Amino acid sequence: MIENNLNIRLATIDDVETVFQLIQALADYEKLSHEVTGNIENLEKHLFGNPTYAEAIIAELDDKSVGFALFFTNYSTFLTKPGIYLEDLFVLPEYRRQGIGKALLNYLINLAKKRDFGRVEWSVLNWNQSAIDFYENMGAKVLPDWHICRVII
Asked: What is the pTM for the complete model shown?
């Protein structure tokens, strides 16, 4: 654990290029680089424009950006409360197993509590057993009865 040199914070407009680079690193890790068709300009507009559509947090280790989480608000009709949907959580491979992913997820959970939200949820690729194990060790329940549905527009 490297908590003393680790800083987790909300991203600012000055971080947009860094967030986009981390998105590209995530896509490369998942062997999905060909699916990154977005750009920095749209990311900036969606994170910091009016209205905003998403937020991001950055993990910095010794002032180097080594991970991020990108999320947005959703809503639970059963809880009648908003929640957070975690779109991406990523730590550069060379910085894994140091507590950075855990710190990012804990920051997000605490942010949801602070905002009086009802839950934090996300999807995980079924082949990514290390991520599944990580999330389960953090107390998350992988929901086997649910499948993601998507319409590309």
From this structure: 0.91
